[in-house]
Amino acid sequence: MQIKCWGARGSSPVSGKEFVRYGGSTTCIEVRAGNPERILMIDFGTGSLPMGRELNRDNVSDLDVLITHTHWDHIMGFPLFPYLFVPGNRLSFHYNSRYQGNPEKLVVQDMMAAPHFPVRLKDLSADIEYNEVGSAFSIGPVKVRSIPLSHPNLGLGYSLEHKGRIFVFLTDNELGFRHPGGKSLEEYALFCRDADLLIHDAEFFTPQEYKKTTGFGHSMAHHVLELARIAGVKSLGLFHHNRARTDDQIDLFMKHLTGSAASEFSFDIFAVSQEEVIHL
What we know:
It is built from eight helices and 14 strands. The protein is α/β, with parallel strands linked by helices. The protein has one domain (2-279): Metallo-beta-lactamase, Chain A (4-Layer Sandwich), CATH 3.60.15. The longest helix is centred in the C-terminal third of the chain and has 15 residues, at 247-261. The protein is globular. The model has no long low-confidence stretch (mean pLDDT 95).
C-alpha cells in the first residue's frame, strides 16, 4: 500500500509561513493498492483539491471514497473537487448510514444546493455512486473494517489491509472522553492490534490544553501513545494538527516526545505532514 497525506490540519485550513512544513489543508488521505492499482480516498477536506488535480493529470477515472464523518473540515473540499468536473470519471462512496448518515444528502445534495454553491448538482460531469456497507467489506483487493469514533455526531474510523499490511486511520477520536456510540480504549486497541501504521488524532499536546477541551472530540497525544503501546502498532503518526499550532511548536513537542519516549515505546512516532508518502 502507498499512503499519501494531502491534508493533516484540524478544524479549519490555515496558511502562512509558520504552517509550511506540516501544511495547512484539512483531512484528505489517498491510498493506492493492488495491480491493477485501486485508489481509495478518505475525506474531502481542503487537501482533496490538489489530490483531485493530480488524479485528473494522471487520467484516473475510478475513485473509491470513505468518509469518516461530515463535519465541515472533512467535507468542505467536495464542491470544488476537480475530479467531479471530468466526463467519464466515476466516484463511489462506501458508507454506513447508521454512523454517518447518507452522503448523497449530507455531502452531495446539501453542499451543492443554492445558496451554498453556484454550480448545480446536475452539471457535475462525473458519475457518483453510493454503496451502503457493513462494518467489514472489500474494495477491490483492500479489506476494510470500520469502528465507531468517540466524537460528537458519530463517525467511523477505518482499518485497511492489503497483502497482510495494515493501515489504521482514526481521526477525530477522543480517547479521554467516551462520546455516545464511542468505544473504550481497550476496544480501539483491539481494532488497531499489530497495525503496521496507525494515524490517530492528537490535536492536544498537554494536560493543560486538554483540560480546557475535554469533550470536544479530539485526543491528547499521551492518550494516543498509550493506545499505540497497548495495540502493539509498528508506527504511529500524530494527526489533526491544531489550527493554531505552528511548525516550530510541533517540532519542539516531537523533539521532547521522541526523546522521552525512546526507551519506553517500541514503535516509531512522527507528526504527519502534508504531501507525506508512506509505503507499507
